[in-house]
Write a structure and sequence with these properties.
78 residues; mainly alpha; two-stranded antiparallel ribbon; 2 strands; extended; Ribbon-helix-helix protein CopG domain-containing protein
Length: 78
């Protein structure tokens, strides 16, 4: 059975200090380049997307990508 995620009262904003591994540094750089967004905006959006995916997968859903030929491929997030 999937565990439910506990909602919290969101603060207006909250500051975090984190250390990124090299792959995450590159990903943030790449996303700022292609999106034109700031690092802060990219990281905020990434956390929100990850939270959405975690909730959906906790509810028993699967993440699938459709290839150009129409076939589906399941994505595993570890």
């Amino acid at each position: 059975m999937a565990r439910s995620l506990r909602p919290v009262e969101p603060a207006e904003s909250e500051r975090y200090s984190v250390t990124f591994v090299p792959a995450a540094v590159q990903a943030v750089h790449d996303l700022t380049e292609v999106s034109g967004l700031s690092k802060s905006d990219v990281i905020n959006r990434a956390v929100q997307v990850y939270a959405f995916l975690a909730r959906e997968m906790a509810g028993g859903r699967q993440l699938m990508l459709r290839n150009e030929d129409g076939s589906l491929e399941r994505v595993h997030i570890v």
